[in-house]
Amino acid sequence: MTLAEFKRRLAKRTPPAQLSPALAGARRVVVGGQRQAGHRARADDGRGRQGLRAVHAYLHRVEKDDENARYWYRRAGVPMATGALKAEWAAIARDLLAQSR
Fold first, then answer.
1. How many C-beta atoms lie closer than 10 Å to residue 41's C-beta?
2. Which domain does 37 fall in, by range?
3. Which residues have CB under 8 Å from 1's CB, separation 6+?
4. Number of domains in the chain
5. Comparing C-alpha atoms, which of 100, 81, 82 is closest to residue 24?
6. Which of 29, 73, 74, 77 has the fewest CB atoms within 10 Å, i.e. the most exposed one?
């Protein structure tokens, strides 16, 4: 699935079939389930761990909780983002989609 297809499917009530936990978290961020996305990131079972951590870091950045965001970016192994939130979400989603192929 491409990023454009993923974005088109965000408007639907039900998520696309067989989304990884990290992609499901990224989807929930957009459809208004930030808390659920964060819980998914914390309940990581070891599969897609870096992606879940990136989503969790992003959520803390959205909440303007920079201290926790820095912690989760470190756990994800990526530098803390400083650009536009929409661009960061798109980059995370694009990376997760590429990993799921």
1. 25
2. 3-11+18-99
3. 9, 16, 97, 100
4. 1
5. 100
6. 77
DSSP string computed for the chain:
--HHHHHHHTTSSSPPTT--HHHHHHHHHHHT-HHHHHHHHHT--STTHHHHHHHHHHHHHHTT-HHHHHHHHHHHTSPPP-S-HHHHHHHHHHHHHHHT-
Contact 34, 62 (CB under 8 A): yes
What letter represents residue 25's amino acid? Answer: G
Contact assessment for residue 1 and residue 97, using Cβ atoms and an 8 Å cutoff: yes
Give tens-digit pLDDT for 28-81: 666 555 555 444 544 444 445 677 788 888 888 988 999 999 998 998 888 999
Q: How many Cβ atoms sit within 10 Å of the Cβ of residue 42? A: 10
Residue 37 structure tokens = 């996305």
Please, which residues have CB within 8 angstroms of residue 96's CB and are 6 or more apart in sequence? 20, 22, 23, 26, 48, 51
